[in-house]
Amino acid sequence: MIDPDHVFGNSVLGSEIYAEKIGTGKLAVLLIGGVHGDESEGYLMAERFLIEIHNGSITLPEDISLYICPRLNPDGCANNRRTNQHNVDLNRNLPTRDWDRNFSNIKYYPGKSPGSEPETAATVRMIEQIDPALIVSLHSYEKPMINFNGDCEDLAISMSEKNGLPPKGDIGYPTPGSLGTYGGWERNLPVITLEILRGQNPDQVWKIHRDALLTAFSFYISRKIPERRTAHV
Ligand SMILES: [Zn+2]
């Protein structure tokens, strides 16, 4: 059952956009999957995490409240499409200072205006209410990498020791209106965009990235946890 307190909005077609909360620790961490609905490697990994936590194979440290939003773009995931139902790339639609109405390829269509999409409104609400110390967003790409935005290169390097992927501060092309910019560069909120190898089978993905994600979730425990980094939801 989804806790209604953890439903942050609805998609264009009316699906709930929710995050499941695990643990009651002071350090809130947000794991997001399925921003791009044709990148099943990411949302299946997020869902696998929920399954493994529920069946007891994984135990998280007490200091953490982990929020998992497995499918931020439920309509896209249901239809295996990158964009939402309005053909908007949700990772170009966030209300960032660098939001740009121009796009080089239709698959990067940023929408009519910054934050125009209901899924984006849900993302903003989720971040404001959860107030996470870290966001990890799961994507897939032909060139797998740990893309870091904000002050978290050290975290990306630690994850790299577990999954062998290169840490990169720049994905190689501009991404205005992205979550990395919204959180990492504009809100001092570290964002890791984990680009899983596209086409890799779910068991392999699990094996390769499980420990890297656990490293990420625990990374800020040992640091001084500022008081404001408490879970509000
Ligand atoms: Zn993606």
Q: How would you portray this structure in words?
A:
With 233 residues, this protein is α/β, with parallel strands linked by helices. It has a single domain (4-218), classed as Aminopeptidase (3-Layer(aba) Sandwich). 29% of the residues lie in helices and 19% in strands. The protein is built from six helices and nine strands; from the N terminus they run ββββαβααββαβαβα. It has helices spanning 40-54, 74-78, 118-130, 153-163, 179-185, 202-218, and strands at residues 7-10, 16-18, 20-22, 27-33, 64-69, 134-141, 145-149, 167-168, 191-197. The strands form two sheets. A seven-stranded mixed sheet has the order 3-5-4-6-9-7-8. The model has no long low-confidence stretch (mean pLDDT 94). Zinc ion binds next to loops.
CATH architecture: 3-Layer(aba) Sandwich
Structural class: alpha/beta
Largest sheet: 7 strands, mixed
Question: What percentage of amino acids are in beta strands?
Answer: 15-25%
Could you give the order of the helices and strands?
Answer: EEEEHEHHEEHEHEH
Task: Record the strand order, biggest sheet.
Answer: 3-5-4-6-9-7-8
Contiguous low-pLDDT stretches (5 residues minimum) are none
Relevant CATH superfamily = Zn peptidases
Oligomerization category of the chains in this entry: single chain
Fraction in helix: 25-40%
Describe the global form. Answer: globular
Integer count of domains: 1
| Ligands and ions found | zinc ion
The level-1 CATH class: Alpha Beta
CATH topology description: Aminopeptidase
Report how far apart the termini are. 16 Å
Secondary structure tally, helices: 6
Average pLDDT taken over every residue: 94
Number of strands: 9
What radius of gyration results from the CA coordinates?
Answer: 16 Å
